[in-house]
Design goal:
This protein is an alpha/beta fold. The chain is built from 9 helices and 8 strands. α1 (about 15-25) crosses α9 (about 205-220), α2 packs across α4 and α7 (about 145-160) packs across α8 (about 165-185). The two termini are about 15 Å apart.
Length: about 220
């Protein structure tokens, strides 16, 4: 199987780029966030409290979660069930946010993500995919952009949604997030030794996708 890992800081456009690269390659886009939500849905259905770390640690070992194509649509599959339409409720969001802090939950999801990568050609994005989750990925990309550029992208996104954001505050929050991600004890954000650095500060989405496709072709011949 062919595995493409895309890591980088918050706001670098990893998910958008990973989805487009996966589409061009006809690979699975391994939406790790959706897999966490599917696990949260399972926990919610079992009546597990998000405060009960012991029960979460035990129960998260039970379900099988994967991603596949069904009738041309990419779907998240929980124990054989397409749960795409059930992953965005407030209850699932709350459970996903709080249960993800349980170490066993992270270990179980990593196991499921690795299983998916063994069975499917995948593009997977995150902060520790190339360094921890898929250290043997054939292609690793470290996608970044300056703090100022990432803050401006977020600022414009919030403006388009009708908000009244403060640019300086957004910039401070992104810089603080970078520091937390890069200094956390477990799987800190860093560029893998064999990853290719792609700085998207002065590139459009299409230019980034094209550049990454060239890197993939150079590395793999596909």
């Amino acid at each position: 199987m062919m595995n493409i890992a895309i890591d980088g800081p918050a706001g670098a456009g990893k998910s958008t780029i990973a989805r487009k690269v996966a589409q061009k390659l006809s690979f699975i886009y391994a939406d790790t966030g959706a897999m966490y939500r599917a696990m949260a849905l399972y926990l919610h259905r079992r009546g597990i409290s998000p405060e009960d770390g012991e029960a979460i640690a035990k129960t998260c070992m039970e379900p099988e979660i994967s991603i596949e194509y069904q009738d041309g649509e990419q779907v998240v599959v929980l124990n054989g069930e397409n749960v795409n339409s059930l992953l965005r409720t407030q209850e699932v969001s709350d459970m996903a946010s709080r249960s993800s802090a349980v170490p066993q939950m992270r270990e179980r999801l990593m196991e499921l993500q690795r299983k998916l990568a063994l069975e499917q050609n995948v593009v997977m994005d995150g902060r520790d995919i190339g360094t921890v989750v898929l250290p043997d990925a054939q292609v690793k990309i470290y996608l970044t952009a300056s703090v100022g550029v990432r803050a401006r992208r977020r600022y414009l996104e919030l403006k388009e949604k009708g908000g009244d954001p403060d640019f300086a505050t957004i910039e401070e929050e992104i810089a603080a997030r970078d520091h937390r991600d890069m200094t956390r004890e477990v799987a800190p954000l860093r560029q893998a030794d064999d990853a290719v650095l792609v700085d998207s500060s002065d590139m459009s989405i299409e230019e980034v996708v094209s550049h990454i496709m060239t890197i993939i072709s150079d590395r793999t011949g596909i």
